[in-house]
């Protein structure tokens, strides 16, 4: 049924599946499916799945309050405990209301973290590998999805609360790794320069580059950071509304549109509802297929990380979009032409081979996404 967090991240995924028999019986409020078994309604399922995105939305909006006041490092450390609070509520839940509340707070933490991690990465990474390092954020997400699929597959057949509590509680591990990792890492030099703490900025940059704080290379890079900050300050203070006026409007829209389109490509459907989709397609072990697609997601991210700094951003986005479009069209065509529904709403598969071909094109779609739009949007 449940979840993963790539480095405690934006993409904590819920795969809400009828295959989780115990979870459905535990959280059912009296609804039954067409065979008379306990179930949850479609509206309840939609709330459970979507409430995390609502929390993520508000968390992302709140991230500047932490990142610009307490710093990137402390902000991330606090955010992990917001996420942990949400995970604790979900783990303890035995009914939908508390579970939904936990999903919201977990999403709020994901929103905070997902905004601050790429920020921390971009402000600490050397210019020549910045694209690959920020792209590694997406790699962490895909690894989290794969681990979630493995844990789901190992626990979904349990007929006790461990069937959902184990996959949820596993998230604590990654959040704590992020928390303790940030204890060892320094604050970003840019934030320290912004606060006028040049000595601390030099020490932080030296630690990141494994050089003494007074090394010429460190001093040169620190000078660039300070010069860029001074230039921004000389322009004058800006209001939030200025972000949506020329000449910044185009840059703002480009950044926002890339993030929005990354989600609108449909990849969330595969990892939110993939298990259910595969079961409806006549696949006997949908959880195994979910592990396979998650594995493809991980492996396909690696060539994308290499190509970001080698071939450029725009060509990868263009051809990745073309590949995803063709793959999705074929998946939609095969699914529409070879399945139907009975009067009870149950899926009838007329051609299993065609459904398996559809899954192959889903894998191809994941390859195009993971090697282009996945890491590039960050």
Please give a structural write-up.
The chain has a two-stranded antiparallel ribbon. Strands 3-4 form a two-stranded antiparallel ribbon. A hairpin with a 5-residue loop joins strand 1 and strand 2 (38-39). Helix 5 packs antiparallel against helix 13. The protein folds into 3 domains: 1-184, Growth Hormone, Chain: A, CATH 1.20.1250; 190-237; 264-378, Growth Hormone, Chain: A (Up-down Bundle). The model is unreliable at 1-19 (pLDDT under 50). It has 15 helices and 4 strands. It is globular, with a radius of gyration of 23 Å. The longest helix is centred in the first third of the chain and has 29 residues, at 96-124. The chain has 378 residues and is mostly helical. It has helices at 21-27, 42-67, 72-92, 96-124, 130-155, 162-169, 171-184, 189-194, 198-209, 216-235, 248-264, 267-280, 286-311, 313-338, 352-376, and strands at 31-32, 38-39, 339-341, 347-349.
Features:
378 residues, mainly alpha, Growth Hormone, Chain: A, 3 domains, two-stranded antiparallel ribbon, 73% helix, disordered N terminus
Question: TL;DR of this structure?
Answer:
This protein is mostly helical and 378 residues long. The protein has helices at 21-27, 42-67, 72-92, 96-124, 130-155, 162-169, 171-184, 189-194, 198-209, 216-235, 248-264, 267-280, 286-311, 313-338, 352-376, and strands spanning 31-32, 38-39, 339-341, 347-349.
């Amino acid at each position: 049924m449940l979840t993963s967090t790539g480095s405690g991240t934006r993409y904590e995924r819920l795969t809400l599946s009828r295959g989780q028999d115990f979870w459905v019986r535990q959280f059912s409020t009296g609804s039954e499916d067409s065979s008379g078994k306990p179930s949850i309604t479609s509206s309840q399922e939609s709330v459970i799945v979507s409430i995390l995105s609502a929390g993520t939305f508000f968390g992302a909006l709140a991230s500047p309050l932490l990142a610009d006041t307490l710093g990137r490092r402390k902000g991330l450390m606090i955010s992990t405990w917001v996420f942990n609070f949400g995970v604790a509520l979900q783990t303890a839940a035995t009914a939908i209301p508390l579970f939904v509340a936990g999903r919201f707070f977990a999403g709020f933490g994901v929103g905070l973290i997902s905004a601050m991690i790429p920020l921390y990465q971009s402000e600490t990474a050397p210019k020549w590998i910045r694209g690959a390092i920020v792209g590694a954020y997406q790699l962490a997400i895909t690894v989290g999805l794969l681990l979630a699929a493995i844990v789901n597959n190992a626990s979904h057949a349990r007929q006790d609360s461990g069937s959902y509590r184990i996959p949820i509680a596993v998230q604590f591990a990654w959040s704590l790794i992020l928390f303790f990792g940030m204890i060892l890492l320094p604050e970003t030099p840019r934030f320290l320069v912004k606060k006028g703490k040049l000595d601390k900025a030099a020490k932080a940059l030296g630690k990141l580059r494994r050089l003494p704080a007074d090394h010429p290379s460190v001093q040169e890079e620190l000078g660039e950071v300070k010069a860029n900050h001074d230039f921004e300050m000389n322009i004058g203070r800006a209001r939030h509304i200025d972000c949506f006026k020329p000449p910044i409007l185009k840059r703002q829209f480009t950044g926002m549109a890339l993030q929005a389109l990354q989600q609108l490509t449909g990849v969330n459907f595969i990892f939110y509802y993939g298990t259910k989709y595969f079961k409806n397609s006549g696949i006997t072990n949908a959880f195994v297929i979910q592990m396979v697609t998650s594995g493809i997601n991980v492996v396909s991210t690696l060539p994308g990380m290499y190509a970001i700094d080698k071939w450029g951003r725009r060509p990868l986005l263009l051809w990745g979009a073309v590949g995803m479009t063709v793959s999705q069209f074929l998946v939609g065509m095969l699914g529409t032409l070879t399945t139907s529904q009975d009067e009870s709403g149950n899926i009838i598969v007329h051609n299993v081979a065609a459904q398996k071909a559809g899954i192959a094109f889903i894998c191809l779609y994941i390859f195009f996404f993971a090697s282009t739009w996945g890491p590039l949007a960050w």
